[in-house]
Structures are given as structure tokens and as C-alpha cells.
Write a structure and sequence with these properties.
By secondary structure, this protein is mostly helical. It has four helices and no strands. Helix 1 (2-65) packs antiparallel against helix 2 (83-109), helix 1 runs antiparallel to helix 4 and helix 2 crosses helix 3. It starts with a helix and ends with a helix. 16% of the residues are buried.
Length: 179
């Protein structure tokens, strides 16, 4: 009888240890997942969302001001004959391209945080678009105003991608926190 009691006690102790171990393992996995999701938000998708939204607001403001990318062409009188081209170059060099450069840096250096297995096409297009402006800006600095936009169009779908990814990760983060 005494041996049965000892066996039951040892079995209960082992079972308690196993349950505690498995629970701690589950909590550690959850904490690691929360840490990774938080890094995705803080280091990639949060900045991606904020910068694309800011750029979109600025671009819409330029359109409201009357600067339309479709109308950017060099007249026979020369590139400085219109205030619109001058304004466009200032906005690109001083505002839009610096935002693009910041976003380019984030995407390249935080690519390991991308949700998908492969880099989304809109991010690849954005990187190519941004790189295209480097050549245009260099031409402008050398006095060549024959071109006014990147050879790759800005991928509008990046804004939807950034918003959907950011909101999805925030929802996942709240769930992991327990809210």
C-alpha cells in the first residue's frame, strides 16, 4: 500500500512537471511570436504604412495644386519655362525622393521581416521606381531636364499592401497580447 502511494505521488509529480514544461514551452513560443510580430510592425510595416500614406497625401496635394505628372513634358522653350516643372523638381528632390529613399532603406534592410515567402511584386516595383529617380535627379543636377519621372511608374498597390499588412499584424499582435 505504501509503495502504491509512493508511485502515485511520483506519477503526479512527473505529470505536474510535464504539464508545467509544456505550458512554459507554449508561453515561450507565444512570446517569441509576439516579439517577431512586434518587430515586423515597428521596423517594417509601420514605417511602410506611414511613409506610403504620407507620400499619397503629399502627391494628392500636388495634384490639387495643379501639378500633374501626366503634364510634365519639356516644351520647346526649355524646361524652366514653366513653374510647374520647377515645382515638380523641387518636390521630388526635397520631399518625395527623400521619403522614397527612406522607404527603400527600410525595405532592403528589413526584408527578413516580410510576411510572405517571397518579396511582394509591389515592393520590387517600388525599389525599381525609386532607383529610377536616382538617374533623373542626377540628370537634373547636371542641368539636363529632358526627363521628369522614373522609368518605372510608382506602384499604387503598395499603399493597399502596406495598409492591409499593417492592420493584419496589429490584429495578430492584439490577439497574442490577449486583447
Amino acid at each position: 500500500m505504501e509503495i502504491q502511494g509512493l508511485i502515485v505521488t511520483v506519477a503526479l509529480a512527473l505529470l505536474g512537471y510535464l504539464v508545467t514544461y509544456l505550458n512554459n514551452l507554449r508561453l515561450a513560443k507565444r512570446a517569441d511570436k509576439l516579439k517577431f510580430v512586434t518587430a515586423q510592425i515597428d521596423e517594417l510595416y509601420g514605417p511602410l504604412y506611414v511613409i506610403t500614406q504620407t507620400g499619397q497625401i503629399l502627391f494628392q496635394a500636388l495634384r490639387a495644386k495643379g501639378i500633374k505628372k501626366e503634364k510634365l513634358s519639356v516644351s520647346e522653350a526649355g524646361p524652366d519655362s514653366t513653374d510647374e516643372l520647377t515645382d515638380w523638381r523641387i518636390w521630388v528632390e526635397e520631399v518625395l525622393y527623400p521619403l522614397n529613399a527612406q522607404l527603400e532603406h527600410i525595405i532592403i534592410n528589413k526584408a527578413h521581416l516580410i510576411i510572405e515567402e517571397e518579396m511582394p511584386h509591389c515592393l520590387k516595383l517600388f525599389l525599381a521606381h525609386s532607383a529610377g529617380y536616382k538617374a533623373i535627379i542626377k540628370k537634373w543636377r547636371d542641368g539636363n531636364f529632358s526627363e521628369h519621372s522614373s522609368v518605372i511608374e510608382y506602384p499604387d498597390e503598395i499603399e493597399e499592401y502596406a495598409e492591409n499588412s499593417f492592420l493584419s499584424l496589429r490584429k495578430q499582435q492584439r490577439k497574442l497580447i490577449g486583447r
